[in-house]
Amino acid sequence: MGTALIYDEEMTKYKLLWxxxxxxIEVPERLTVSHDALIKTGLADRCVSVPVREATEADILxxxxxxxxxxxxxxxxxxxxxxxxxxxxxxxxxxxxNIYHCAKLAAGATLQLxxxxxxxxxxxxxxxxxxxxxxxxxxxxxxxxxxxNVAIAARYAKQKYGIKRVLIVDWDVHHGQGVQYCFEDDxxxxxxxxxxxxxxxxxxxxxxxxxxxxxxxxxxxxxxNVPWNKVGMKNSDYLSVFLHVLLPIAYEFSPxxxxxxxxxxxxxxxxxxxxxxxxxxxxxxxxxxxxxxxGKLCAVLEGGYNLTSLPQSVCQTVQTLLGDPAPRPADxxxxxxxxxxxxxxxxxxxxxxxxxxxxxxxxxxxxxSTKQIKLAEEEEKEEETLKKGEEEKSAEVEAWPEPPxxxxxxxxxxxxxxxxxxxxxxxKRFSSSEDPVIVNKLRENFFKDSDDSDALTTLSTLxxxxxxxxxxxxxxGLALVRDVSxxxxxxxxxxxxxxxxxxxxVCVGDAVVPSQGTDDGKTLLVQFSNKESEEQKSKYxxxxxxxxxxxxxxxxxxxxxxxxxxLGYEYDPGLVLLVRMPGSGLCEGAWQQLTGLLQGLxxxxxxxxxxxxxxxxxxxxxxxxLGVAAPSLGNLHAPLKEDMEALERLRHRLQADxxxxxxxxxxxxxxxxH
Length: 674
Ligand code: FKS
Ligand code: ZN
Prior knowledge:
Helices cover 37% and strands 13% of the residues. It has helices at 29-40, 43-46, 57-61, 66-73, 80-88, 99-118, 149-161, 177-183, 235-253, 281-289, 309-321, 337-350, 367-388, 436-446, 453-470, 484-497, 553-571, 588-598, 618-625, 641-654; strands at 2-6, 48-50, 122-127, 166-170, 189-196, 223-228, 257-262, 297-301, 411-416, 428-429, 474-481, 503-508, 523-529, 541-545, 575-580, 606-611. 54% of the residues are buried.
């Protein structure tokens, strides 16, 4: 099942016809450079090309008023003077004789994408459109937007396909207030947006964009705003918000469809956003959403005004949708104080609505008045800047390197299986001729006093497989072995001595885990079990105790999102060793989610170890390794209170060593300390 790409040159055929500094950045080249880059990199060729269509009046009326539609309909016949005047009633937008046609195509392209995904023609896709949509209101154009493409698509998916829950992720750097207003009282559409806010000093300057606007009536809790109060946010800030806000809520919400307002003005170099996230962060943002809704994800272009970082970011997104492993994320050194303040505020505002946040830290009570103070401070600062005439501040952006080409290994998934187990489609059975040096070393370490030649063969095969993964000849692998503990020990030992890369070992279930490498940081070991007694021996050995072990899906999922992934991203391993102990109690769906999510690390280099008698799991595990989306976990019940409290304590304890685990800012974090 492929990835759809929807584009039509016609949408480049309108532009600003007069002088307006607010609108001059919204140019036709935004689309051409993005599409050209997809062609030049060969990505476009790998996609299923789907034609655009015009949205019908009925489609547009799903969101907009008849009066507004009638007004826009007249614009193709207006003179330049009339167009200028028509434009004046709205904010930061321009009209052109051909924009109505393009706006119908932009909305229609979005619906074509939704149709392609929901009929199963493709599994996901991206639409490159102009004009964008997320600011437009029921009866008004705004911020370059005429019709609200994504909002229309959400209503359309519900109406035409009976979709129950839609998640809209708006990673554009502006607040999609149009989407928020459209669904603010609707619990079937969860809207998440992060946006440059600067205590309301940034366009569209609305109180409604702050973290305490959580939705109304039945929709309370289904609107999630993350305000950025400083510019210069980086990869760590974005990833922290995904791991500690969006994903916990999204997994609890359990959408049937994910729509992304994919604006790339949140990338480095953008004159509007002034943020510092690198284009390859979009590979991770995309990857992290791809196991929701069974992989049904539609990305729709919104903003993005730097004609270099825009096409780079678009390519990262599309390549990830195609299933290629994401590149190792760069410089994840933890979120900045301002981002932590926002994180803390949103988590606290949403505490009442989501059981995953039930144990999040409270906000200090004085916060409402703080808002006024912060705004005043911001205003003062601005005055000072003006006085000093320091206008050059935004002019200079440090150059960033072009994201390196993502080379995908010739073999995606290699399996080490007993002869009587058939190799699933799309995978390669792995065997290797024995390297006498390795065999001798293994015999020395593991078989001093026995002569188990079968086991020795398995171990030497595993070692060879790890070697091939390190050389990027194979992406990932799965081995069914007789003795999981011994295989784990062997791979860890090999890695700690021979492997140049750091190894993240994720152990699911009870086991005596090897501590090799955890003293010098060559391995990071995270173990999920119900063994209370396990104590942490070093920064690199982290036992996670859950009351019912891994059998409580909610608790396990939250531990993966809020603990394992932040640790994994910060540690940045070159290999992930995922070990499933016999009788771990982890259900198949959660296991597939874990396998899928972990592939965001180490360029997808994951080696899975399972016990011989778990043959039944081979098919589903292999398909997760091949990049097939995990099935949705469905409606999760609330996780156990004690587990969530224990998790929160553990995170708190580890925060000094692992910055990506932080969810509160130093100054405002007093509320949760005892
Ligand atoms: C110029 C001020 C411009 C308007 C910004 C509009 C942003 C539009 C967008 C969209 F995705 F809709 F295109 N203010 N210094 O990027 O959010
Ligand atoms: Zn934007």
